[in-house]
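Many introductory courses stop at the sequence. We go one step further.
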Amino acid sequence: MSTASSLKAVILAGGYGKRLRPLTDERPKPMIEVGGRPIVEWQILWLRRFGIKSFVFLTGYKREVLIDWVSRNAERLGISYMFLTENEPLGTGGAVKRIRDFINEDFLVLNGDIITDLNIEKLRVKDGEVAALALVPLRSPYGIVYVEDGKVKAFIEKPVLKEYWINAGVYRFTPKIFEYLPDKGDIERTTFPTLAQRGLLGGVQFAEAYWRSIDTMKDLEEASNEVLEVFKDSPSL
């Protein structure tokens, strides 16, 4: 089985980021700055901690902005890279399927709008599985009111609900995944349900990891106050 440092990381970087307009009017979502750096840079810094140096960027919307930034910063970040561009939206499944001729071993795929520090070494595909998903606890988007005997006892601000798990948007795939990917369509709606029904999809829980999906202006504001602390030990900061 491949060690983390030998894996290629495939970043889904073609999204429109409509809910972050006007910030995404002139750039793709992974180029939105959080704490003074684009999301994609935080992703690279995270994966470089585990020795991962080879990146594939699946681009689409405003791709020239991402291509220019990666090309200018690759040497500083110590990575090699390639780009694959879709001229029409193919969905996450269709986009990943296009790399089948370039990869013949396990590889990582991650959504281009998440920031995390989860331990990628623990994300492994077990024998008999085709893929493994990273899972993180659900953070309530609302404050919780604790009531006892009809009396309000406490207010808990946006607790982490550790009994519920969500897809972290970080995956480890074996090459067999290409047999299950659509030419056009999303992995989450097509491939994963099929694999789950057949017992071919693993789920690895990361109870203590930092994880943020940057979907709204509020996410952006909150993450900007968190990332510098999370990545303070990164040698590139």
